[in-house]
Structure formats: C-alpha cells, structure tokens
Amino acid sequence: MADGVETETNESKQPLTRTLAETLWFPVFFFTGFLVCYLLAFHQPTPHHVKVAVADPAAAARIDAALGQASPGAFDVLPVASGDAARQAVLDRDATAGFSADPAHPTLYVAKADGYMLESILTQTFTPIAARSGGTMAVVDLAPTASGDPMGTGMFYLVLAWNIPSYIVVMMLLRAVTMSRRTKLWLLVGWAAFLSVAGYLGGLAMHVIPNHPAVIPLAFLLSLGISLTSFGFVPIAKQYFPGVAMGLFVLLSMPSSGGAVPVQLVPGFFRALHPFMPMGNLIEAARGIFYFNGVGVLRPILMLCAWVLVGVALVAGHALWQKRKAAPEQAVAEPPVEDPVFEMPQPTAVPARHRHFGEPVPVVSGAVRGSEGEPVPGAVVTVMDGRGQQLVRTVADESGSYAVAGLPDQFVDLVVSAPGRHSTVRRILVREGETRREDFELSGRRQPVSAVAGA
User: Fold this and answer.
1) Of 8, 110, 164, 330, whose CB has the highest number of CB atoms within 10 Å?
2) How much is the pLDDT for 351?
3) Average per-residue pLDDT for the chain
4) What's the Cα-to-Cα distance from 156 to each of 200, 217, 262, rounded to whole Å?
C-alpha cells in the first residue's frame, strides 16, 4: 500500500515539475540575460582601446606612456604631424578623439555623435594633461548631435524602434495559420518599409536626427533583415523561438550596439559582437550619414545586406526542405508556434501521447472506445463553447486517444462521433490549472437510412 502511495505521489510531482519548467524557462532566461548582458555590460563603463590622435610625435610618446601607466589598455595613442591632422583624424573616423598638445592652446577634438559619455571621459582624462603643460584646454565638438538629442543617445532609441517591432511582427504572425508563406513575406517587406519611413519622420519631428533621408533604406535593410532572419528561425527553434529571437536581437544586440553606451566602454565580448550585429551596424552607418559626411558607411551597409541574405537563405532553405520531404498532396500546414510572451493560449489539438518539453499541456484528454472496450480510431472529438461555436476539433489516434489544450476557463461541450456509431455529448467545466480525463464509449450501430425510412 505504501509503495502504491509513493508511486502515485512521484507521478503527481513529475507533471508539476515539468509544468513549472515549461512555464518559467522564458522569464528565467530573460532574467539571466538582462543580468549578464545588461548589468555586466553597463554597470561600470570603462574605456578600452579608445583611439586618440595626438599632434607632435614627441608629445604623443609622452602622453602614451602616461596614459599606459595610469590606465593600461584604455587608450591607443596615434601620433600625427599637427593639430589639423588630429582634427581630420576625428572627421575621417580614424580616431575617436584628437589632441593638440600645444602648451599655449591645448585643444581636444571630440565628436558628441559618438556618445556623450565617451566625450565626458575624454575631457576628464585630457584636462589634467593639458594643465601640466600650463594651459587651459579647449574642447571642440566636431560632430554635434541634433538639437533634440543633447546626450547623443536619441538615435539609439530611434534604432530601437526599428529593431524591436521587426521581430515582434514575426511573433504575431505565428498564429496566422490561414496566411500563406508568400503573403507573410510580402507583409514583412511592407512592414519594414512602413517602419523605416514612419521612424524617420518621427525622429525628424522630434529633432532627434538631422534631415538626411539616405538613412531610410538602411533602416529598411535592418528591419527586413531582422524580420526575415526571425521568420527563418521559427521552424528551427519552434516553441523556443521567442527566446532565440529576443536573445539575439535584444540581449546581445542592444549592449553591443554602441548606442546607449559607446562600444569602447563595454566589455570585450560585446565589442567583438559590435561589427556583426544589425543594430550596431545601422547605428554606425547612420552616424556616418548624419555627422561624418558619409565616412565609414560601406562596411555596415554590407553587413546589413548580409543579414537580409541570411534571412532569405533560412526561409528558402526551409521551403526547399519541405518540398523535398513530402509530396504536395501529403503536405500539411505546420501547427502554430505558441508565443509565451504575447499570446494567450489558443484551443488546439495536441498529441495524445509522447508530449515533448515546451509543447502545450493537454487540458482535456482521454480515450474513445466501443461497447466492448475496443479502441475507436478516427473518432472525431469536437469542443464547443456555450454558444455552440466550435473551439477545436481533433481525431482520435490508433489507440482511440485524444488530447486538446488551451481551452478557456468555462463550460464546454465535447461532441464525440464516429462512422457507424452513436454520437455522444458531454458538458464539462474547464478550470484554470486543472487537467481532466474524459473517456467516451460509443456503442451500438446506426441503422441504414433506408431501414429507418421503411419503418
């Protein structure tokens, strides 16, 4: 008796543990991601290999030695011939800052477009160096930001508005099972066009960016690349797609973008990601267009195009795989991927047995058998709401078993039928957090229609 109780207890604990794991994996993943990616990246911004062009090779050697001793690895000093050369190095984006060590007029050349935080650190670092030479340092901003972006971070939030909705639209399309793949792809193209134009006009209206429409096609490339890549990941990641998409385009993209915190101030892992992630590449290209007369935009544009090609390859590859896997007459529509973040559970048929981790948990399951206990494969189980509207319809498997998930918290009617047998209807109450087993017996045989008419 004790063994029976212990077995029953273990069996009851296992579904609860599994349900908790399936329910909490995404918030735990997101919590860990924010803790590691955001707190680690942003909690203590420290300069790493910030390139500074210093006029006069002799002065550059002295400053390099002093900075290397005070802050090892923080600054890379590039010796140039003159103050004008130091200034030009900033405009050409060969250096983050330029410094003229002229004792009479020490000057620091910066670009606020690269981030106010970086400008502040550079000013704090070079002010005492200029003071030791007996002069008062002047700070010259060679790339001032737009009037509505005094901190130099406004463009980051604009790019964020192009970035996040680009994969959210894919999440919302997961349930559009009546929409063809081609229609979804055209919708993604149109969505990218809308985002790029609307975002640009919004940023312009708030004076966050200068009036340079050339950034619109780059924003289109960003949105389309993220959308297509996310869409291509859906059949690979399945129910884990939200974690994959948000991990890639939020948890990794934002800290490595160089928008909120300049990329020179984040840890090495995120600096290494910066040249490859789409958000960082758009920010680099937009800065070049807005503030540096187009300098340095080619490489990030090519990288944005590469993301579009990756998305196209994923989508086309999956379509080709589906075509080769099954003949057109055997192909069936893929079940919708449930998004745990943005969607409520939807009534859906699920496998009666062998459920895998992450799949919807059956709310009602059971078996359909005949009067002698034999299974009735192919029996149709239809779930209706209180108004007689069909919620979901499923077919019993070879053992007569069925299962449905995502039912609303209310009374529902289960209508069970099979060819040659009497149908049956049962009303049950579905409660949140509870699962039910409902077995049915379909007995008897229907008389032929002609016999009933003759009687």
Assistant:
1) 110
2) 77
3) 86
4) 13, 17, 11
